[in-house]
TrEMBL record:
KW Transferase (keyword) present: no
Cofactor(s) essential for the protein: [4Fe-4S] cluster
Domain of life: Bacteria
InterPro entries xref list: 4Fe4S-binding_SPASM_dom (IPR023885), Aldolase_TIM (IPR013785), PqqE-like (IPR017200), Radical_SAM_PqqE_MftC-like (IPR050377), rSAM (IPR007197), rSAM_sf (IPR058240)
Stretches assigned to the Radical SAM core domain: 1-192
PANTHER family xref list: PQQA PEPTIDE CYCLASE, RADICAL SAM DOMAIN PROTEIN
Cross-referenced Pfam families: Radical_SAM
GO MF annotation list: 4 iron, 4 sulfur cluster binding; catalytic activity; metal ion binding
Native organism: Virgibacillus dokdonensis
Protein name: Radical SAM core domain-containing protein
NCBIfam families: rSAM_more_4Fe4S (TIGR04085)
Entry-linked SUPFAM superfamilies: Radical SAM enzymes
Keywords, sorted A to Z: 4Fe-4S, Iron, Iron-sulfur, Metal-binding, S-adenosyl-L-methionine
Length: 310
């Protein structure tokens, strides 16, 4: 799903059922997430979620929440495991400047409708130049006061200049983004509650671990439309899955010539392959130099020192 004009050659519900069948046949554990645009505008969203649950998937959705009401919440409870509601400001003034007049109050009301359900709730927040300070100053009080301290996850992500946002100068510097996350976390997590999060070995950059399927059938092996690897409408579903599964295996750091003897391979994951793939190079070509490795080592030391200082 996307937020552009409607595709009149969109994937049919029958095709979505076939995609779910293929995924459930291949993977023991898998996650289906409906995004957009606005997934609640798609007439078959309940059918997709219900069938995916029957096939053993964990289900999720990212929504602006506007179309939620008591009946819709009742329909979703039991077939939707995770729901992230988009919010781009911790006050009405900032959020509504970005998302539209009156949206902030509507989101607060919808979140309260979901409070006593079995759906795990989250806030999907994009950190931008126009809201970074507002989030730092007000996000904690928003959850504690506007949402009555409800148990809710907070996902802070950086602005990506793609799609309709490609011409917006909203990117924040990586250092400011990191400090916003740290500042926010410090307000929500006390010293008594804090615990280190284990880091598991990274087998690759993430290529092929996610299949991003667009309404017109295009399939990307990661969360970007910059590299399309087949079309679920025009190509056989099984073939598209095979292509991406095989390429994922080829991208494993224990197989890549540049990576397989590197001590950092299971921390780095081999780096992002999209830069090389979009210019026609192979999945086994990695861009890496000593400066990159040095920065990664310094960052590891910094993280370790921050952990033991708590």
């Amino acid at each position: 799903m996307d937020s552009g004009l409607k595709h009149y050659d969109e994937i049919t519900l029958e095709k979505w059922i076939a995609i779910i069948d293929e995924a459930s046949h291949r993977y023991d554990k898998w996650f289906l997430s409906l995004t957009g645009g606005e997934p609640l505008m798609y007439k078959g969203h309940l059918d997709i979620l219900k069938y995916a649950k029957e096939k053993g998937a964990t289900t999720g959705m990212i929504s602006n929440g506007i179309l939620l009401n008591q009946n819709k919440v009742k329909d979703l409870d039991g077939i939707l495991d995770h729901l992230q509601i988009s919010l781009d400001g911790a006050t009405a003034e900032v959020n509504d400047r970005i998302r539209g007049k009156g949206v902030f109050d509507k989101v607060v009301k919808r979140l309260k409708l979901l409070k006593n359900t079995n759906i795990r709730l989250g806030l999907n927040v994009v950190v931008m130049k126009s809201n970074a300070e507002n989030l730092r100053e007000n996000l904690h009080s928003f959850v504690m006061e506007e949402l009555d301290g409800m148990d809710i996850d907070i996902d802070l992500s950086s602005f990506v200049s793609e799609g309709r946002g490609k011409d917006l100068a909203e990117n924040v510097e990586s250092e400011k983004f990191s400090s916003t996350i740290s500042f926010t976390a410090d307000h929500f997590v006390s010293e008594d509650d804090w615990m280190p999060t284990p880091s598991y070995p990274r087998r690759n950059c993430g290529y092929g671990n996610t299949l991003d399927i667009y309404p017109n059938g295009d399939v990307s092996p990661c969360l970007t439309p910059r590299f399309i690897r087949g079309n679920i409408i025009n190509d056989e579903i099984q073939n598209v899955f095979n292509w991406i599964d095989n390429e994922r295996e080829d991208s494993l750091v224990d197989r890549l010539p540049e990576c397989k003897t590197c001590d950092l391979r299971h921390i780095c994951g081999g780096g992002c392959h999209l830069a090389t793939l979009t210019v026609g190079q192979g999945i086994n070509q990695v861009e890496c130099d000593d400066l990159y490795k040095e920065r990664m080592l310094k960052n590891l030391v910094k993280q370790f020192e921050a952990t033991i200082s708590r």
